[in-house]
Specification:
The protein is of the alpha+beta class. It contains 3 helices and 5 strands. The protein starts with a helix and ends with a helix.
Length: 101
């Protein structure tokens, strides 16, 4: 399943009447240029699942950085990632592969 269709399904599976009011998925652009993706994993099966940080820099525009982190301001654990302008799907694939492991 393609990453975008898969992430839509994953998001909907988390919606339980409470989770979606407090948590969610944020995809944004950054000025490098590139992408920023933050996915709430608080109150999901992923909260305590180990994740090995990923830091790949192929070129100045082809790179990804992914980690999980606790964000006190956003009240919970998140999958946090950044990537080059053509790496959005790769970031979503990293999240998908981690979830499915």
């Amino acid at each position: 399943m393609r990453a975008l269709k898969w992430i839509q399904k994953w998001y909907f599976e988390q919606c339980n009447g409470d989770w979606e009011h407090r948590y969610g998925i944020r995809i944004d652009t950054i000025d490098n240029p590139g992408w920023s993706v933050m996915i709430s994993i608080e109150d999901t099966d992923l909260r305590d699942k180990p994740f090995d940080n990923i830091d790949i820099e192929r070129t100045g525009t082809d790179w990804i950085y992914c980690k999980t982190d606790y964000d006190q301001e956003r009240d919970g654990f998140h999958f946090v990632s950044f990537g080059g302008p053509e790496n959005l799907e790769e970031i979503l694939d990293v999240f998908k592969e981690w979830v499915e492991r």
